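Milestone M4 deliverable, item 7.
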Amino acid sequence: MIKSLICRFQPFTKILLLIFLLVNSANGQSDTELFPGVLNIQPFTANVLEPKLGFLFHTGDNELRLDIGNSVDILSHSPSPDETFSFGADFFTYSQLRNTKNFHFPVDAIDYLFGFNFGYKKIDGDYAYGIRARLSHISAHFVDGHFDKNNYAWRGGFDPRVYSREFIELAPFVKFNKLRIYGILTYIYHVDPVELGKDSYQLGFDYFAPNLIGRNFSLFAGYDFKIEHLLDYEINHSVSTGVKWGKPHGKGISFYLHFYNGKSVHGEWYFKDVNYSAVGMNLDL
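Output delivered:
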């Protein structure tokens, strides 16, 4: 068992070693910054596997999603004013909750994601292009809110299952003024249950329009189309649109509408078809 864990997390230990080498080589270089204040590559607006700090209240059923976590650039290196390399970390959870009386929110399921990311961005006039790479682990769990105490059984007859995956993700993008278009290719090199597929493909865009309704207010919209290989290839649609108060590509607070159709984002429910609209709030730190 211990040997299996070491093998699965070996890429992460190599990344940690690389961190120390990069930090050590960065000392004394004016074009290298530790813990820069702004992410080199901002999260893709409608991609459901991005770090958030907020919630989504479903409008058609008694569910909500709670996101807790963040993505931080640890190191950035700019060999020229219009070119930046970055290295960072992602740590976040996304939970499925229900609303019950007395302001209680039982947690049905929770997924954990942690890993590292690498970024490259080049600015050329009104254009920008680059790529983000992520090496990450996700594990999923049913929680006590999924257990029916009255019947002493798991709700709906769905027992907890082992679900985890380690994956490599490549996300090239190109941006023109306020419009950014991206693609995401994901390869899962380890997954439980083992019968699940190991590849997924995404294409999407996001658009930010600052100062249209007042100073420090930005309107935004995003769409993400995903083909995900589970037991078969499944199609997911994700749309987000709203307003952000703060910096368009930095710190602020967003209020938005979200629409989703496809397989559940939660690993314990990977087989479940979901279709919902939601109202959300997110803090960008």
